[in-house]
Amino acid sequence: MAFTLPSLPFSKSALEPIISAETLEFHYGKHHQAYVNNLNGLVDGKPEANRTLEDLIMSAEGGVFNNAAQVWNHSFYWNCLKPGGGGRPSGALAAAIDRDFGSFDAFKEEFSAAAAKLFGSGWAWLVLADDKLKIVQTSNADLPMKHMQTALLTIDVWEHAYYIDYRNARPKYIEAVFDNLLNWEFAEQNLARA
Amino acid sequence: MAFTLPELPYACDALEPYIDARTMEIHHSKHHAGYVAKLNAALEGVKGFDGKSVEDILRNIDAVPEAKRQAVINHGGGHANHSLFWQLMGPGKGGDPSRALAGAIDSELGGFATFKEKFADAAANRFGSGWAWLTRNGSGRLQILSTANQDSPLMDGHVPILGLDVWEHAYYLKYQNKRPEYIEAWWNVVDWAKANELYRAANG
Known about the structure:
The complex is a heterodimer.
Chain A: H1 21-43, H2 53-59, H3 62-79, H4 91-101, H5 104-117, E1 122-129, E2 132-139, E3 150-156, H6 163-166, H7 170-180, H8 184-193
Antiparallel strand pairs in A: 1-2, 1-3
Chain B: H1 21-43, H2 54-59, H3 66-87, H4 99-109, H5 112-125, E1 130-136, E2 142-148, E3 159-165, H6 172-175, H7 179-186, H8 192-203
Antiparallel strand pairs in B: 1-2, 1-3
């Protein structure tokens, strides 16, 4: 059973003007698809082909890990975005953010700085680790589950995520996504399940 | 004396159609300039580095205080790598390597065609951001390698002879996800005379 590209939870133009349809054509249609294709090519005819994506992420290294993790990361990232998103979390997540970062504004500043400062390609995450919320950065394909952390929310800071729309201005992309697209309901569900 | 951004040795549109003017402009005036500014910020107030070249600093990276070291690896590497990259390209270049370097590629790397294939593989297979390199290694032999992010081969005792930037910012506006097409096009702008000069200096 081959790994497949999940459908986007919105249309390619739904995130305009924050993230253009052109960016999603490439980011979803080419990059995410290529990770799926590369993974299938690497595991074809091997026992790994019958394992779950999470299993492969936890056990594999090298190309299988990179492609499996990038399949997972991108599927997760699409769910962290929605048209008309942004705003603030509510309920248990809002309370946990206040408890662990002091305030939502302090969280926003720390999360945005982590995303802006990650050197090279990678991701910034809000995670749950040892019953506390934390902000972490990962390089390339690396992801929280490999470090026994639960991902709640992410932003992709590979240059391909923003270069067409923002060129080198990564902080502008981060701020625009944070204020207009973040899907806090998804993050709240991730916390509730953890 | 703070580090400064070197001027491009040609106009931003000089490498068209292989590398577009918009990419060159942003790559030089934003990305490279950013590395210079952040390198200066990292070394501000740190004693013992006045007047040293960025290459010297990278060759002796352990001499940089630990609290500043990663910033110097990232931004000093970014400054050194890009400064070299601009010089290794030019309009109307390409073709085959010349003189001493051509002979060494034949005798040590199995010929130009084999070298090109292996170098292109190193560039295409670098996962995430980084560089592909042809270097003269510590044993005096040519070597193909790739480094992550802005890590400079100088830190490992290599002398760079040829370098190709495969950060997405180097090619995304024109080639998007098609990194192999960028690599293939790049051979048309390689300044082999400059590479040969670096090779001779490395052996001198």
